[in-house]
Every structure is written in C-alpha cells, then in structure tokens.
Amino acid sequence: MTPLLVSEPWDLYSDSTETFQLIGSTSSARISGSGSPRIIAPLRLKIRYGPKRKFLPQISFPFQWAGDICIAFQLPSDQRPQKTVHDFSVDIFSPGDIHDVIQSDMIGRPDANYGSILGHKVDSFIEWQIHCFSELALAIDESTSPEMEEKSQKIMRRNWQSVRRVWIDVDKTEAIMALIVKLAQDNDLLRIFDSIARRPRHILLRCRENTQIHRIQELDSACIRDLARRPGRTVAEKAGSRQQLLAVQRYASVETLENQVYRWILDRMIRRAKDYIATNRHHASSNRVQTVARCTRRCKAWSSSEYFQTVNFEHLQHPIQPNYSLQMDERYRHVYKTYRELLKEQHVRDDAWEWQRILWAESARQLVGCTLTEFFNEDHASTPYYRFEGEHGTWTESPVGPGPFKTKAGPCILIDSRDVLVNPDAWINKPPFDFAPYLGTVGCDQVLFWPLSRTLLIIWFIYWTGVSEQIHPMISRSGEALRILSLDISRFTRQHYRS
Fold first, then answer.
1. Among the three residues 323, 354, 385, which one is the final residue of a domain in this structure?
2. Whether residue 209 sits in one domain with residue 319
3. Which domain does 191 fall in, by range?
4. What does the pLDDT look like over 78-107, one tens digit per residue?
5. Residue 139 has pLDDT above 70, yes or no
6. From CA 310, how far away is CA 247, in angstroms rounded?
7. 99-124 pLDDT tens trace
8. CA atoms within 13 A on the CB side of 127
9. In whole angstroms, what is the distance from residue 356 CA to residue 123 CA?
10. Most CB within 10 Å of its CB: which of 283, 314, 412, 454?
C-alpha cells in the first residue's frame, strides 16, 4: 500500500478531496490542520519526521488493507510561538522518500508578548489537561484504599474515584494548581531569592588599566614590560604628566553562571505568572491567583535591583552544565532545583503543544472512563496508570480502558486502540473478535462492544479548531463511513453488527 495523507480518520471510506498519495522520492502535499490529519501506511514502514528524524507516533487500530497490515500515524502540530493562524510545514521521511507536508490553518501558540484570542484559549485548554494529568501523576489521596493506589519509580496507579475527582468533580471556584503556584507559595524559597537579590555571590575580575601611581596595588608581567618600554629614568618620569602607569585592578562582578540562571528563573516566573493569571482571570479573587500576583511583583523587584538589572541570561544554552555554586552553595542549589523544575515544565508544555491532538485523545479517554465507571459496575475493578511526564502527548500506560461493564443490555467491553497497539500483529493475525481486522479502516480510537446484541459503538476523539459550521457535515461523513464499514464486516465475516 502506498502511504496516504488524509484529513479525516474515516477518509478511506470517503471521496475527500484532501486525500493524497505520498509517492516519489520527493513530494509535497497541503492539507487542513484544523482537525485530525494523519498518514496511513503499512505497519512495517518506519515513518519519521522533522530534522531529528524522530518516529511518528501510531494511533487508532491496525487493519488489513490491500494485502497489508496498515496503521495510522499522527502528524505533529507547531510548538513554536506564532502570532496568528499560519501554515506549518514538516518533512516526513519514509524509506527512500521525503515528503513535505504542509498543514494550513494552524492555531498560533501565544507568547508572553503576543497571541490571538483563539491561541490563548487553546493554550488554556492545554494547560488544563496538563494540570489534570499532573495531579493524578504526582499526588496520592490518603483517604483512598492503599490497595488501589500506589506510586512506583516511574508510574502512578490510581483508582477511578480519584480520577473522577480530578476531571469532573473539581472545585470550580478555585484556580487550577500549577508549578508557578507551588513556587509562589514556597516562602522558604522566596526568602532565599530575596537574600540573593540583596547579597548575590560575586567574583573579582582582574583587568589592566592606567592607574594613578599612588593607587597602584598590583603589577603583573605585562605591566612590568609596559613600564620598561616607557621613556624616562625614574618611575615618576615614566608615569608622564598624568602620573599614571599600567596596573592590575580588581572589580567585583555578579556576571556569574549562577546569577545568570537566577535571573533567567525570575524572568521565567514572571512570564508563567502572567500566563497563569490570564488563564485564571475568572478566578481573580482566588487565593492562588492573588499569591501568584504578589510573587510576580517581588520577582520584578528582584530582577530590576541594582545587582541584577544588567545581568544578561540570553546566551544561556539549556540545559546548562551546573557549576560548583549551583550544586553545593546553600542558597544557589535551591536556584538550580527551581531551574530544573521550570525547564521540565517547559518541556512538558512544548510536548503538549506539538502533540495536542494526542493529548486531547488522552483526556477524552479519561472522560469516557470516568463516565462509564460512574454509571456502570465493572466485573473487576480496574486501575489506570499514569506517567510522571507526558511523551508525545501520552500520559497513561496500558491497560488504558476500564471494564468490562455490567449494563442493562448485557456485558459491555471497552476496546481501546492504545491497548491494541501494544501488540498490533496479534490483533490482525489472532483477532479476539471477527470484526477486529476491519475496525481501524474508519480510524476510530475506542469501541464499546455488546456481544449479546452484536452492537458496536464507535468513538472518535476529534480535535477540531476550525469553524463550527463544518462540524455537522463532518458528522454526516463519519456516519456514511460507519454504514460502509457495517456492510464490509457483514460481507467478510457473514455476521451482522449494529453500529
């Protein structure tokens, strides 16, 4: 099968004008980036992207098509700050070929100084999702059963009651938790920052300059050579009419790595505080928002103090290699700890923006799981697993889906593509259900299956940033794709399923 670029998950069953074959050693294709564009290719192909040629993440269910086992690959979004809606070009590499894929109508990521209204809304939406996953990954509720929740070295095990508390039963009167809130509430850290602002660590710089004779305290070999070259027999004659000689002077300077990192932290905290206050503007009276606002004023005062207003941090290459002071000094080791926390947060936010479509699918899975576990009983209680940090927008570990469930219509099984992708070959070669090899042709993410009534409820997690008028036609196209899928399953399996 030739790799295909499609604009909608179900485009294999539609005659969409935005379906392109990626043929030739070099090719270019333009597609809308408002929805969930993806590449469909044989599972055996290794699809990479970008200058570092990283692997594209796989999504949806594997399926059989034209004699191949095929899979969908998610396209990245633009994580760089942009003022407005724009085009985003990314190089896609398949064995022997390079394809330039241009996604149009991409929402620009806002910066501290600019950004569109929609860009800020998307940024707030992404922040909320990161917050929810971070809450589940980093905190344990002592009131829950210890048998159901535990923290290991790399993952956190939770129960669905705690998950619902984070995603659904949240206190809407309080602003969300964030790293900037944690830093603003850390009075010990702020006292250290204030101490550094008033008494920073400094070094003595040695330089040579013409100095009055009576103020000379140190000479080095270069100064002595300069003295020897001057005309005159005595020191006074060599000093000339101005009575100056080249001498070594020492000046105190705060332009050290540890102070540059400290200054970078202040600037970063001011930016994150500004974003946080804007995101939570509807909670202006919240204690968290007010605490962050007070912290912002202190950070601005420290950064504009007499010692630090001229300290330059623009040339820092992140992550920096810490020096002795950042690792061992009683005050500056807290600076380095804060630096690493802020840098990690930046990495998480960059990853979330680049893979915002996958992040939304992860969040939607949580909402589906919360709803099902709230209204239906499981045969055996399931527990979701969370990573401490997102990667390619993914925060959960398999098994992702809860269930099976007891419903009025009989047992219900939730089939999640994330769980299937752990072993995609087995899904095709040893299918657990007769419809399994064909399910991925519509590009869905989850399926609810009632075996007794042979009913399939197909679920897509569509990430849409375009105009709302296009949503209804999209639903119609997905319905037509389901109709064709139902006919195909009936033809190939000799079984009729309702979908």
1. 354
2. no
3. 179-200+256-354
4. 999 998 899 999 999 998 889 999 999 999
5. no
6. 27
7. 999 999 999 999 877 788 899 899 99
8. 22
9. 10
10. 412
332 located within any domain? yes
Give the residues across from 94 on adjacent strands.
97
In a domain, 340, yes or no: yes
C-alpha 350/C-alpha 353 separation (Å) is 5
Spatial distance between the Cα atoms of 181 and 186, rounded to a whole number of angstroms: 9
Closest CA to 393 of 427, 425, 365, 424: 365
Amino acid at position 250, single letter: R
pLDDT value for 214: 86
CA Rg, the chain, in Å?
30
Q: Exposed e or buried b for every residue in 423-438, given b needs 16+ CB within 10 A?
A: ebeebbeeeebebbbb
Query: Measured between alpha carbons, how far is 379 from 98 in angstroms, rounded to an integer?
Result: 49
* 242 lies in the same domain as 303: no
Report whether 359 contacts 393 (CB < 8 A): yes
How far is the C-alpha of 143 from the C-alpha of 91, rounded, in Å? 50
> Omega into 424 within 30° of 0, i.e. cis?
no
* 315 vs 257: CA distance, rounded Å: 11
Contact between 358 and 392 (Cβ < 8 Å): yes
Structure-block tokens of residue 176: 């969300």
Provide the mean pLDDT of the chain: 91
14 has pLDDT over 90 = no
85, 106, 127 - which closes a domain: 106
Nearest to 84 by CA among 112, 116, 111, 124: 116
Residue 131 covered by a domain: no
Mutual angle of helices 187-198 and 257-279, in 10-degree steps: 130
Q: For the chain, percent helix, then strand, then coil, each to nearest 5?
A: 40, 25, 35
Tell me the per-residue pLDDT of 215-258, one tens digit each, with 9 for 90 and over. Answer: 888 888 998 898 899 999 898 888 888 888 888 887 778 889 99
- On whether the CB atoms of residues 272 and 110 are closer than 8 A, the answer is no
48, 97 contact by CB (below 8 A): no
Overall domain count for the chain:
3
**Domain check: are 187 and 325 in the same one?**
yes
